[in-house]
Structure prediction request, 714 residues.
Amino acid sequence: MKKAITTLILMIIHAMPVLSAQQLNPTGICYVEVNNNNILNAGAYKLQTSGNYLFNVVNIFAANINYDAARGRAYLSNNNNVTKVLTNASTYIKPLQDKGMKVVLTILGNHQGAGFCNFPTREAARDFAQQLAHTVNTYGLDGIDFDDEYSDYGQNGTGQPNDSSFVMLVQELRALLPDKIISFYYYGPAASRLSWNGLRVGDFINYSWNAMYGTFSAPNVPPLTKAQISPAAVWMGNTSNATTTSLANQTKTGGYGLFLWYDLHGTNETAQLSAGTQTLYGQQTVLSTPLQSWTAGANCDAPIGLFTSNLTGTSAKLNWSAVGTNTYDVDYKLATATTWTSVATAISATSVTVSGLTANSEYDWRIRTNCSVKSTYIFAPRFKSVGGTTPSGSTSLLLDGTSESGSAGNMNLSGSALSFEGWIKPSSFKSGFPYISSIMGTEVSTGNSALLRLGDASLANNKLQFVISINNTSQKLAGTTALNANTWYHVAATYDGSAMKIYINGVLDASRSQTGSITSNGAFNVGYAYDSSRNFQGKIDEFRVWKRALTQTEISQKMCNVTLPATSLAAYWKFNEGSGSSVQDSSGNGLALTLTGVDASNWATDIPCPAGNQKASASAKNQKIDSELVSAKKQIRLYPNPMSASSPLTVSVPEEYSRGKLSVYNFNGGVVETKILQAGDHPYDLSKLSMGNYIIQFESQDGSLKQTEKLIIK
Prediction:
């Protein structure tokens, strides 16, 4: 694996852009604050004798990384002035490129909690990298520059910086932009998070420069060489000419390949520039053309809240949030294509359906707002049409318990009622403290959580636990049934404002009284909580989240499917894709599940529900499922269960146990009946039992099985 990664890195490095041999040495890097200045002025400065342009790389300062709290997604945002530059690229970008300059877009935090260092998954980092790459390709830019300031990590329920995020981001971006510039303004949390899992930020970027103006300090970004680093940082109009000369001298004698100039104004800067260039190149700087003034661009925001729903093999519904009373232009393309196709022009709705898709294929889509001007495009999360070689409904998803999981972004589950349900087939249970395997839910803090998991510090690692935050406290309900490895179970947890309940295979397993409102608003994960050491290991299928409390009848009769649309169904992941790195949300709410670490080997044909029999009645389905489950466990089976007093009850004893004792207890612990059963199916006389709940215990004669089940008579 390490050899493969090393080979990939070498290939990427060889593909990285190299500036022209006619460039200055050291290379001139220039930032232009486009809120106040015309970027074309970077092309007005030349060296007096050689006639070379002074700046080789010009940074548009700055676009922002913003956060869509409703969708739980970081997105690229361009203010009115950056928008003016990008949407008029032929006026402001192309003329500089025609002079041999590279024009790069700087990305800056914007006090919303989103930053380069807190992507929770590789898929989230890839999504933002795709947005950046689309922007570079759409507007003809030469690369991306990262400035990790002003993110305010933790705002809007976002996470704090982690070690993997920035590395994953630049790695994903380099794969998308192999021949473009990626640079790093050496500042902020990212400066101390430059390596992870054997990978380094420096393996995927071209340049880095000192961010402390008026000082000389070389960024430490291995394996970048001196040729790729600027230890000097000059702030135009704020760094003295004497200091500028000193920084130039240190750069030249130190053998560094870059020299950074920040904040080029619209006034004549030749005096300060010459203070550096006389030392660096032995030449004064002169103006070759008149300087140009700047008029701010008109405001026109791109819409956010982008998601895809109603996916079929040939169509998809594209959704967004309105921006005032404006209209929108929408385009789409195959992920592998370079040309965009228009879906709608000047549409006033907040959704549009695209048809003619190819089954089992990945697509991108983008949208812009029409104001008095046009906004820049915002790029939606990539989606995948359904269909392909794997039949719908015939797959589940296998998770490894360490690095594989799913994320649905932000989900607000706060309120007075909630239900989780889904099928799990654990491969193993956590053997180390705190013995937790996360199934699904949010876990932001003690006062902000709602989740279903296996185990806890004081609970066996193979028993369910339902956790919700009420009054800033984690309220926990522990299950009573110990689950077996390599066995399918339908698990469910409900809260109705008065009680928390856990169900296993449609049977009530545990309950407790509880009142109050749930507080849960944050990243919703499947197979993962806040720590990958708690990841679930095993197969999962048919996961649903409801903003109401399901009844036992609903749970027991609809374990395999529900009729759509369904009231208060917040999210529904069927795991029927059979391939790819995302799972579509069948609820219609657009909460696609983005998968981390998943490849073709994770999709399994082992499923809990019968495939190809979707028209069968719920009771027939559940009876067949129950039979398959018990057969896999080699345990006794009671069916139907729950049941009515007028229905016949059958107790089935597997052939593995030729003889055993069956005991029936009421819920007060009293023995109702004891009898000896041979292997096979046995009708049970219900005349001794009234309506209510009972405990059935079977112990095989050889002692290899002691099984306890609940029996419910309605």
About this structure: Confidence is low (pLDDT under 50) at residues 1-15, 388-392, 612-633. The first helix runs from residue 2 to 15. The chain has four domains: 2-17+27-287, 307-384, 396-604, 634-713.
